């Protein structure tokens, strides 16, 4: 026969649960439900950490997308059956709940039809284990020992203790599980029948994923199938259990081990009183309740506190009939009824004194078991690193920590620790992602608005250029003849009124030419000729030139220029035009005096200039129109409505942005941000 599982170590065998990456949808349900947080998230895909996984299977049931899978052993079992070597199957006592409607003898017949030489009920092994617990408990009570005992039939509980609460390892009951006990019996019987024969291969079938890992560790069982995998095996072998010839299970037959899969089954089978008021025994089931209890016991052991309860009967699921690999659509009560009904249909001797002679032949077998701590050592995370990671997602103060658990972790700090340890990602924070999305949408809308505005300006610019070109020639003729008339009338005494009219024609023609010049500047996308420029010096020049508009000297200038700004590569002439225009507008907005504030600062890859005034501000309804061609709030003859549009075009060609807003305290504020090219000085 080929290599047997019993000859291999646990490290050579993969976990019973794995991730099918293409189905993982970043919902983090597995992180949320995993009792040991044995999940590492990389690039949004959640995979399992073997060192922390206890194979409880909770992630399988909690993953709605089917990304978490139970590793199938059907192919390995088929290979065992086809070797021709004797192979026995052990059926967990929860099978009546997994195969409702199928008689137990027909199910046994179906297993034999698959090729199994022996078909056994693990309930007999449960009886043997219960006998061991009965003796252990009575010794504990009789001796007055202050120690307590944690039951060990549930492999998920055992793994949790070994990996998460290693201080509790000495308190695990040193007794094999029913599966291991039954495998010990089957192997011993085979050796007893033929001392020279090789022991049979052993396959266990049940509702528990963790049994796959327990089998590898113990080396008593070669393969483990879940009930669903057993159905797949039947299909692969072409067997319909409902139509198979009935046959009994092979002896030895159980006493009352069939009750093991329901709440308190171990205590009932071991005849241990579990009365809440009188018995020092506790029955706890369910992942959350069990882990909370184990953590509490761990703390008590560390602190040296006395624990009053003597025996803790723990199951990670609410009984094995609620195991992660149980099949069928019945609820918990329906499954429990099937177990009880099966026991009633075959009433054996219940009294443990009557049971002793039946089990005497196996009394000499070794049902003891040793456990070993397997903690994953994790060094404490420095507080400054936790705060740094929290700050990335905007949690700079404790009140910012929402603890919404959307990432799967119980708190923002717990998730930050996981990020530090490399098993979680910053992007798992849902509020952070929502904020980023909102910012991205806002930026997208702003960029879209800018694009529409730019396209609108480009279209208008083309039209304006054509109009301006056509107007320039007649305007030149009007100005030429108007000036000729003006010279002719200048020397005549009776032409004062006509001279005034001609001078008006000249003024309005000059104003029209100025408008046309502005239109051409607006329409013409000049090339940006970048050169190293001292922005602070350029601002100072603009401010000095603009003082000519403050004839009364009533404007107070406040400068806050960043000395670290240095030289920036811009088109000096065009950028001076932008500064001149905005500063001039600010001064004109304060005819009665006020303050002009100019500030500059350097950011990464860009610089920003802000120009503020204490004037009346910009009416809210005009803010969206400021950079539209020909829009002006100045009186007729005072402005063309093209100055800010030209500024907008210049800044845009520099790869920057310009925006206007009203200051909270009154007045307007213009902010110009310019991106620097890669060759920035």
3D architecture notes:
By secondary structure, this protein is α/β, with parallel strands linked by helices. The chain has four domains: 5-16 and 71-362, Rossmann fold, CATH 3.40.50; 383-428, no CATH class; 433-523, Helix Hairpins (Orthogonal Bundle); 531-675, Histidine kinase-like ATPase, C-terminal domain (Heat Shock Protein 90). It is 43% helix and 13% strand. It has 22 helices and 18 strands. The protein has helices spanning 29-33, 58-62, 74-81, 95-98, 104-114, 122-143, 155-163, 178-193, 210-218, 227-236, 265-269, 287-303, 332-345, 352-359, 383-392, 412-420, 430-490, 496-523, 535-546, 572-588, 620-623, 643-653; strands spanning 17-19, 39-42, 45-48, 68-70, 87-91, 118-121, 149-150, 201-206, 223-226, 281-285, 311-315, 531-534, 555-560, 567-570, 594-603, 606-613, 657-662, 668-675. α15 (383-392) packs across α16, α17 (430-490) packs antiparallel against α18 (496-523) and α20 (572-588) packs antiparallel against α22. The relative contact order is 0.08. Mean pLDDT is 85; it is low at 1-11.
Offer a quick outline of the entry.
The protein is an alpha/beta fold and 681 residues long. The chain has helices spanning 29-33, 58-62, 74-81, 95-98, 104-114, 122-143, 155-163, 178-193, 210-218, 227-236, 265-269, 287-303, 332-345, 352-359, 383-392, 412-420, 430-490, 496-523, 535-546, 572-588, 620-623, 643-653; strands at residues 17-19, 39-42, 45-48, 68-70, 87-91, 118-121, 149-150, 201-206, 223-226, 281-285, 311-315, 531-534, 555-560, 567-570, 594-603, 606-613, 657-662, 668-675. It has 4 domains: 5-16 and 71-362, Rossmann fold (3-Layer(aba) Sandwich); 383-428, no CATH class; 433-523, Helix Hairpins (Orthogonal Bundle), CATH 1.10.287; 531-675, Histidine kinase-like ATPase, C-terminal domain (Heat Shock Protein 90, 2-Layer Sandwich), CATH 3.30.565.
């Amino acid at each position: 026969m080929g290599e047997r599982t019993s000859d291999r170590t646990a490290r050579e065998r993969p976990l019973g649960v794995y991730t099918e990456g293409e189905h993982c949808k970043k919902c983090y349900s597995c992180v949320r439900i995993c009792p040991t947080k044995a999940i590492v998230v990389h690039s949004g895909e959640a995979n399992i950490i073997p060192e922390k996984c206890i194979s409880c299977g909770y992630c399988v049931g909690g993953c709605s997308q089917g990304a978490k899978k139970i590793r199938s052993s059907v192919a390995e079992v088929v290979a065992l059956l086809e070797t021709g070597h004797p192979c026995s199957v052990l059926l967990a006592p929860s099978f009546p709940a997994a195969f409702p409607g199928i008689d137990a003898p027909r199910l046994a017949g179906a297993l034999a039809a698959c090729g199994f030489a022996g078909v056994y009920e693990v309930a007999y092994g449960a009886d043997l284990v219960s006998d061991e617990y009965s003796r252990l408990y009575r010794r504990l009570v009789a001796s007055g020992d202050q120690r307590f005992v944690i039951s060990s039939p549930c492999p998920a509980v055992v793994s949790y203790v070994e990996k998460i609460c290693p201080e509790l390892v000495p308190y695990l009951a040193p007794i094999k599980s029913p599966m291991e006990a039954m495998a010990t019996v089957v192997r011993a019987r085979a050796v007893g029948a033929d001392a020279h024969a090789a022991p049979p291969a052993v396959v266990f079938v049940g509702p528990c994923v963790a049994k796959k890992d327990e089998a590898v560790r113990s080396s008593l069982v070669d393969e483990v199938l879940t009930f669903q995998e057993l159905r797949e095996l039947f299909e692969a072998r072409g067997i319909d259990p409902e139509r198979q010839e009935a046959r009994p299970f092979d002896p030895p037959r159980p006493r009352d081990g069939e009750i093991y899969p329901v709440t308190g089954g171990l205590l009932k089978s071991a005849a241990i009183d579990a009365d809440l008021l009188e018995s020092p025994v506790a029955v706890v089931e369910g992942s959350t309740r069990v882990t909370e209890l184990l953590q509490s016991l761990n703390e008590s052991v560390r602190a040296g506190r006395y624990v009053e309860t003597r025996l803790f009967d723990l199951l990670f699921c609410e009984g094995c009939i609620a195991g992660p690999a149980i099949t069928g659509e019945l609820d918990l009560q329906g499954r429990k009824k099937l177990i009880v009904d099966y026991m009633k249909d075959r009433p054996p001797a219940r009294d443990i004194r009557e049971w002793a002679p039946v089990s005497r032949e196996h009394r000499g077998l070794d049902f003891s078991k040793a456990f070993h701590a397997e903690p994953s050592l994790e060094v404490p995370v420095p507080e400054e690193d936790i705060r740094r990671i929290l700050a990335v997602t905007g949690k700079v103060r404790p009140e910012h920590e929402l603890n919404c658990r959307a990432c799967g972790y119980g708190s923002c700090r717990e998730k930050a620790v996981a990020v530090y340890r490399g098993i979680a990602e910053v992007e798992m924070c849902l509020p952070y992602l929502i904020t980023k999305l909102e910012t991205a949408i806002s930026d997208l809308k702003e960029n879209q608005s800018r694009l529409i505005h730019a396209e609108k300006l480009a279209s208008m610019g083309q039209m304006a250029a054509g109009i301006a070109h056509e107007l320039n020639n007649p305007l030149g003729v009007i100005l030429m003849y108007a000036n000729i008339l003006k010279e002719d009338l200048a020397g005549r005494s009776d032409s004062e009124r006509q001279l005034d009219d001609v001078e008006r024609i000249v003024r309005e023609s000059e104003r029209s030419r100025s408008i046309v010049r502005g239109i051409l500047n607006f329409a013409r996308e000049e090339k940006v000729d970048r050169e190293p420029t001292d922005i602070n010096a350029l601002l100072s020049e603009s401010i000095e030139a603009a003082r000519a508009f403050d004839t009364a000297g009533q404007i107070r200038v406040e400068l806050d220029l960043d000395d670290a700004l240095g030289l920036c590569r811009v088109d000096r002439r065009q950028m001076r035009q932008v500064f001149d225009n905005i500063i001039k507008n600010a001064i004109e907005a304060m005819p009665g005096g006020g303050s002009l504030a100019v500030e500059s600062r350097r950011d990464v890859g860009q610089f920003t200039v802000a120009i503020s005034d204490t004037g009346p501000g910009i009416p809210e309804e005009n803010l969206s129109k400021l950079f539209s061609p020909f829009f002006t709030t100045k009186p007729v003859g005072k402005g063309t409505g093209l100055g800010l549009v030209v500024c907008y075009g210049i800044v845009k060609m520099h790869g920057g942005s310009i925006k206007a807003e009203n200051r909270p305290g009154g007045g307007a504020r213009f902010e110009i941000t310019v991106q620097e090219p890669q060759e920035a000085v």
